[in-house]
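Sequence design from tokenized structure. All designs in this work follow the same two-part layout: the structure record, then the generated sequence. An example of the structure record is given first.
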């Protein structure tokens, strides 16, 4: 794994958490909706579940919320480790580019505005920063 791939993990995990959170919101809407009663006079099923239909949705929500909580903890640990990697970079400008890009998730243009530099300079600093950064001894890999 390269340093760039390692640093990019935080962005991917953050996107995954956002997607899972949207799914939980959709499940909440489904759990709150009322389903129609079905009257089947001709068919009798003794193995049919007696739970209300929204119970399965609530169980899915519970599982997904637990998964999100675990992902958030992993993201927190990963960002802490990424900060340590970034702090080891000797040049201040290079460190700032890495922080803005991989901790705060800013675009190249936004970083340029923050650091008062053009996109070419930002990319150059980024390339040098990646050369000066090294993977931690036991990197968190998602």
């Amino acid at each position: 794994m390269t340093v760039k791939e390692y640093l990019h993990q935080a962005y991917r995990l953050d996107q995954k958490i956002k997607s899972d959170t949207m799914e939980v919101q959709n499940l909440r809407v489904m759990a709150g909706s009322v389903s129609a009663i079905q009257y089947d006079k001709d068919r009798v099923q003794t193995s049919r579940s007696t739970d209300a239909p929204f119970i399965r949705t609530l169980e899915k929500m519970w599982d997904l919320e637990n998964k999100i909580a675990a992902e958030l903890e992993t993201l927190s640990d990963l960002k802490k480790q990424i900060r340590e990697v970034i702090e080891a970079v000797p040049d201040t400008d290079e460190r700032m580019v890495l922080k803005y890009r991989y901790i705060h998730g800013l675009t190249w243009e936004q970083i340029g505005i923050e650091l008062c530099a053009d996109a070419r300079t930002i990319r150059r600093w980024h390339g040098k920063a990646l050369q000066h950064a090294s993977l931690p001894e036991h990197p968190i890999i998602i």
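The chain has a mean pLDDT of 88. We note this feature because it recurs in several other targets discussed in the main text.
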